[in-house]
Amino acid sequence: MQDILHAILWVALGSVIGGPTRYFISGLIGRVIGETFPWGTMVVNVTGAFAIGLAAAANVSGVLPMPVAWQFIVTGFLGSYTTVSSFTLQTMALARDGQLLQAGGNAALSVALCLVSVAVGYGIGAIIFGASL
Amino acid sequence: MKTELQQSVKRKIPLAPHLKPDEQARSRKVRETALLYLCVSIGSVIGSVLRALASLAALAWFGPAFPWGTLLVNIVGSFVIGFYATFAGPNGRLFSGTYQRQFVMTGICGGFTTFSAFSLEAFQLMQRSELVLAGLYIGASVVTWLAAVWCGHALASRLNRLGG
């Protein structure tokens, strides 16, 4: 029980900054590029995937104090920094608007870029932290 | 007993009378932005803690072979945002202001769902050479998330149209 309370505390500490960071970055991208396509959500998800790849490599090589760092950085910060709900809502909005190509493109591109990003993040992390690939 | 803020709003007295009107407008804007960030932040903590608990429960019930916890939170979060966006939207039954919308959608739903954990889990399945399971996880995720957001939206539209 004590372990779970500790874990929740670290998750809360990470998420208290992760959510606002997402709000700031996706809003910034939206203002700069425009709101017709959800680039803001894609950018936070792709950068978050890169960061979780780095964190996974750091975890494997044992340079982070576990499980606290994982709870704070990954479950807390990155978990609330990235989002599926905005992605699905925006994809549905595009589809309902008749922009089927954009809706399908958003889904395919988000998933593809995030998977590439997590692999690249892990690869770079493995080189930096000396984890096995 | 009323607070200073309530009293000043009632009497339309500016909170900072020493400031010029444009400075007052700017300071109001700063307060509104700060409050929006606070709403997102508190919502994110609620969503994230619920997600952490859901992952722990899923791990205890189903084991680590397949990432059921993440799949489930992403489905539920998509359903909730689809429902709320329509139910509290322009033609919806629930009256909502900007703060409430940011609190629920950007905060709670955004904090509850996670794209990063999904990406890592799919990658780790591939790393373990479980390619079929990885493909199944990716395909099932995208299809069920989108189905969930649509179901939430459809349910809310129905409720919005009901008479009374």
Question: Care to describe what's here?
Answer:
The complex is a heterodimer of chains A (133) and B (164). By secondary structure, chain A is mainly alpha-helical. Helix content of chain A is 83%, strand content 0%. In chain A, helix 2 runs parallel beside helix 5. The longest helix of chain A has 32 residues, at 2-33. The termini of chain A are far apart. In chain A, 48% of the residues are buried. The model of chain A has no long low-confidence stretch (mean pLDDT 95). Chain B is mostly helical and 164 residues long. Chain B contains 6 helices and no strands. Chain B is elongated, with a radius of gyration of 22 Å. The chains are: A mainly alpha (133), B mainly alpha (164).
A few lines on this structure:
The complex is a heterodimer of chains A (133) and B (164). Chain A has 5 helices and no strands.
Helix-strand blueprint:
The complex is a heterodimer of chains A (133) and B (164).
Chain A: H1 2-33, H2 39-61, H3 68-81, H4 85-96, H5 100-129
Helix pairs in contact in A: 1-2, 1-3, 2-3, 2-5, 4-5
Chain B: H1 4-11, H2 21-62, H3 68-87, H4 98-112, H5 115-127, H6 131-161
Helix pairs in contact in B: 2-3, 2-4, 3-4, 3-6, 5-6
Main attributes?
heterodimer; A: 133 residues; mainly alpha; 83% helix; 0% strand; B: mainly alpha; elongated; transport (chain A)
Radius of gyration of chain A: 16 Å
**Helical element count of chain A?**
5
Give the overall pLDDT of chain B as a whole number: 92
The structural class of chain B is: mainly alpha
